């Protein structure tokens, strides 16, 4: 058996073991969040939701949800709606208790899909009514459309005045002081997407990638790489 064949087999074995470790990993989550004005929280694949975790419609309340046994490859999705008056935003902290990993809104891994920009293409009411949450079916249609067209983009916030505790919301208990209020800034809209009533291409869907290299996957990768490197030498 030649060297090229040995390296190829080692590479395939490495990928297979890493894939098994990732898909077998079941994660538990604790999530605390609120939204001005309302939200629905889901887990799901890159193209659709598969688990409804909860929702809320009263921003002074910090809502806490627990989800167990979620696939390591799942995304967290938060669909949102505002009344387009005074202010709007989403804030929260999301802890994978299995991996001891926390993500705060404002972290770079968060993305948003401004479904309001594509309502006609999606076959939805245009413009989207204020303070109306989309149904699960509408969320799934929007997620699939965003994924197929690579329409997920970075979230927006108000630079220098966005941390938990700022006006008009004050400190939201149960959420890290380092979490940021986030939203989407529509083209041609106010410079501050958080304050002032405005339709920022709503409804909006935010997402967080749950997939991270697990200790088991990393260990398997390391073990598989050793024989490959020895053969190469």
Question: Can you walk through the features of this model?
Answer:
This protein has 233 residues and is an alpha+beta fold. It folds into two domains: 1-25 and 214-233; 26-212, no CATH class. Helix content is 25%, strand content 29%. The protein contains four helices and ten strands. The strands form two sheets. Strands 3-2-5-10-8-9 form a six-stranded antiparallel β-sheet. The chain has a four-stranded antiparallel β-sheet with strand order 4-1-6-7. A hairpin with a 4-residue loop joins β2 and β3. The longest helix has 22 residues, at 3-24. The radius of gyration is 21 Å and the shape is globular.
SSE blueprint:
Elements: H1 3-24, E1 26-36, E2 38-44, E3 49-56, E4 63-71, E5 75-81, E6 89-96, E7 101-104, E8 110-114, H2 119-122, H3 136-149, E9 153-154, E10 204-209, H4 215-232
Antiparallel strand pairs: 1-4, 1-6, 2-3, 2-5, 5-10, 6-7, 8-9, 8-10
Helix pairs in contact: 1-4
Molecular shape:
globular
Number of helices: 4
Number of domains: 2
For the terminal residues, how far apart are their CA atoms?
Answer: 15 Å
Q: What is the makeup of the main sheet?
A: 6 strands, antiparallel
Point out poorly predicted stretches.
3-8, 10-23, 213-233
Average pLDDT metric: 86
- The secondary-structure element order is HEEEEEEEEHHEEH
Radius of gyration: 21 Å
State which percent range the strand residues make up.
25-35%
Order of strands across the widest beta sheet? 3-2-5-10-8-9
């Amino acid at each position: 058996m030649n060297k090229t064949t040995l390296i190829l087999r080692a590479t395939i074995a490495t990928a297979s073991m890493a894939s098994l470790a990732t898909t077998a990993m079941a994660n538990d989550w604790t999530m605390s969040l609120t939204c001005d004005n309302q939200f629905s929280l889901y887990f799901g694949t890159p193209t659709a939701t598969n688990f409804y975790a909860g929702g809320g419609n009263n921003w002074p309340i910090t809502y806490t949800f627990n989800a167990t046994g979620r696939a390591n490859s799942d995304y967290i999705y938060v669909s949102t709606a505002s009344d387009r008056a005074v202010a709007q935003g989403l804030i929260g902290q999301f802890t994978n208790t299995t991996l001891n990993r926390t993500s705060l809104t404002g972290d770079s891994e968060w993305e948003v899909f401004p479904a309001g920009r594509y309502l006609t293409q999606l076959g939805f009411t245009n413009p989207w009514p204020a303070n109306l949450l989309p149904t699960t079916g509408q969320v799934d249609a929007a997620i699939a459309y965003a994924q197929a067209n690579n329409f997920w983009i970075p979230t927006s916030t108000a630079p220098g005045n966005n941390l938990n505790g700022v006006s008009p919301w004050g400190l939201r208990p149960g959420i890290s002081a380092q979490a940021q209020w986030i939203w989407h800034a529509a083209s041609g809209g106010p410079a501050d997407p958080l304050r002032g009533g405005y339709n920022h291409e709503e409804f909006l869907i935010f997402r967080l990638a749950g997939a991270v290299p697990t200790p088991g996957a990393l260990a398997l990768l390391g073990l598989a790489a050793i024989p490959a490197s020895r053969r190469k030498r």
